[in-house]
Design a protein that fits this description.
CATH topology of the largest domain in chain B: Alpha-Beta Plaits
Strand content of chain A: 5-15%
Helix content of chain A: 40-55%
Number of helices of chain B: 3
Strand content of chain B: 15-25%
Oligomer: heterodimer
Number of domains of chain B: 2
Structural class of chain A: alpha+beta
CATH architecture of chain A: Orthogonal Bundle
Number of domains of chain A: 1
CATH topology of chain A: Cytochrome-c3 Hydrogenase, chain B
Number of strands of chain B: 7
Distance between the termini of chain B: 90 Å
Structural class of chain B: alpha+beta
Shape of chain A: globular
Strand order of the largest sheet of chain A: 1-2-3
Radius of gyration of chain B: 28 Å
Distance between the termini of chain A: 38 Å
Strand order of the largest sheet of chain B: 3-4-6
Order of helices and strands of chain A: EEEHHHHHEEHHHHHHEEEHHHH
Number of helices of chain A: 15
CATH class of the largest domain in chain B: Alpha Beta
Chain lengths: 371, 158
């Protein structure tokens, strides 16, 4: 049986899932080779939502290219913008004011919670439970309202700019965030009652989609996918940026290596994000929200790299500058691409019915994979 | 011993289902908390956030005067070529030529509401409006001219 895996033989069935399929969360095309109901091979076909963001960024200035990155991983748009802003600041050697740094971290963590909330709802929906989706969106809506009030948009905010943030916080921001934390703490136990403890959910998640720590490293996975296999990979801890080294939070690690471990990592990560927000919300320093920068930004000749931890994993921004007003080359190392590559490894040998559940635990956002 | 474990397992499984059902049942009977917004029935009372980025507009005062000097800072700041500034030369009463805007063309269909033009403007001539219902039947209706016909620049704005 083992040597047959990965080879197409007579009697095998090949099915195409997607690119227009509701279970793939976007335009992802999977070619699945089946032997009966057992998966022999999964081959993702990409390119259906390629918008050539990297090439496009080469013709935009250092202020302009940031807005495009909101369209990559749209669920953690703030964190993408943050990575680009940090990378440009590294080249400009600008000192970001303390207030701007705190605002950025607060926004990042709110985005992380919103992203994990949506993932939690969609994860349960992948397994056929519709109700949790509405519970997740109830809390996520509160965050979206906070974002709308301060940044002016609900999803593609373009709030981080080189040198700080675009606008100061809304006067209601602190009150609204505290209300959200209260709401979250009041409702979080419902998540466990509805989904985590549910016997059907546990049976479909435990022991399914095994990813060994060695494979997680060799496939270049990052974020909750590796932490579910017990590998330390939180960029906020290992290569701290902004004020993360001064904050108290735990890197969530699970050693189950299966789908359920990856699920638990994300649910517990939301609690850590709330912990970070609680530390900062009463201690926002006064001062400027944006450093003084020149009207036209010019990066010195050289190469600049910055990595951040998005809700899905490690996002790297690599800028090559020739000294002009536009980048010579931009490369994004997106977490979704590496996390998708492991799908064949974890799905091979298991049943077709579990494939969508395994894909759900990888938390794929297709525009992030294709760019 | 085996039977004991089996019964324990079945009991735990049934309990987990009942706990979940109790939560949904609670919300089924306690539906005081209304979270959904009844759009478009609530259009009369719908209030969006002040900073909501819906569309770029140019405010005019009661004398039909705006603050735009035609410096094209917004045009240069825009990543998508959404704004096009068409300038003309006015003749001042002293007989000198003075640069002023003829039209500020705004392509709503290209705009991504990134707010870069508003922050780039040195004279606060443009701002974001809170409108969001932009559907039209004809694409040409999305190309707008932001300055009113016959408007001129406010006194004292350079």
């Amino acid at each position: 049986m083992v040597e047959e895996l990965g080879k197409t033989m007579e009697g095998d069935l090949i099915i195409n899932v997607g690119p227009q399929h509701p279970a793939t969360h976007g335009v992802l095309h999977l070619v699945i080779t089946l032997n009966g109901e057992t998966i022999k091979n999964v081959e993702p076909h990409l390119g259906y939502i390629h918008r050539s963001i990297e090439k496009m960024s080469e013709s935009l200035t250092y202020r302009q290219f940031i807005y495009v990155t909101s369209r990559m991983d749209y669920l953690s748009a703030h964190i993408n913008n943050h990575a680009c802003a940090l990378c440009v600041e590294k080249g400009l050697q600008v000192e970001v004011p303390a207030r701007a740094q705190v605002i950025r971290v607060l926004m990042d963590e709110l985005t992380r919670i919103a992203s994990h909330e949506l993932w939690w709802g969609a994860m349960a929906m992948d397994l056929g439970a519709l109700t949790p989706f509405f519970y997740a969106f109830r809390e996520r809506e509160t965050i979206n309202e906070i974002m709308e009030e301060t940044c002016g948009a609900r999803l593609t905010m373009n709030y981080m700019v080189p040198g700080g943030v675009l606008q100061d916080l809304h006067p209601d921001f602190q009150r609204k965030v505290k209300e959200f934390i209260q709401l979250y703490k009041r409702k979080i136990h419902e998540y466990d009652e509805l989904v985590t403890g549910n016997i059907i959910f546990q049976n479909r998640m435990k022991g399914v989609g095994y990813l060994s720590p060695e494979d997680a490293i060799s496939y270049g996975c990052s974020g909750p996918v590796t932490r579910g296999s017990g590998v330390r990979s939180d960029v906020r801890k290992i290569y701290p940026y902004e004020i993360y080294d001064k904050l108290e939070f735990d890197e969530v690690l699970e050693t189950g290596c299966d789908s359920f471990a990856r699920y638990l990592v994300r649910v517990r990560e939301m609690e850590q994000s709330v912990r970070i927000i609680e530390q900062l919300i009463d201690n926002i320093p006064e001062g400027d929200y944006q450093a003084k920068t020149k009207a036209v930004l010019k990066l010195p000749k050289g190469e600049f790299y910055q990595r951040v931890e998005t809700a899905r994993g490690e996002l790297g921004v690599y800028i090559v500058s020739e000294g002009g007003t536009t980048p010579y080359r931009i490369k994004y190392r997106s977490p979704g691409f590496s996390n998708l590559s492991v799908l064949n490894k974890i799905a091979t040998g298991s049943k077709l019915g579990d494939l969508v559940a395994m894909m759900g635990t990888l938390d794929l956002v297709i525009p992030d994979i294709d760019r | 011993m085996f039977l004991k474990d089996y019964i324990k397992e079945v009991y735990g499984a049934v309990k987990s289902l009942v706990v979940g059902m109790r939560r949904t049942g609670y919300y089924f009977t306690h539906h005081k908390e209304i979270i959904t917004e009844q759009y478009p029935d609530n259009r009369a009372t719908l209030k969006l956030a002040d900073r909501f980025k819906g569309e770029v507009v140019m405010p005019h005062d009661e004398n039909n005067e705006h603050r735009c000097t035609g410096c094209t800072a917004c045009e240069l700041a825009c990543p998508n070529g959404t704004i096009k500034v068409v300038t003309k030369f006015d003749i001042t009463p002293e007989g000198k030529k003075k640069k002023a805007i003829d039209k500020l063309v705004y392509h709503l269909e290209l705009c991504t509401m990134c707010n870069l033009c508003v922050t780039a403007c040195p004279s606060d001539a443009i701002k974001m409006a809170q409108t969001f219902e932009h559907s039209v039947y004809d694409r040409s209706k999305l190309t707008k001219i932001l300055n009113n016909p016959g408007s001129k620049i406010m006194e004292g704005v350079e």
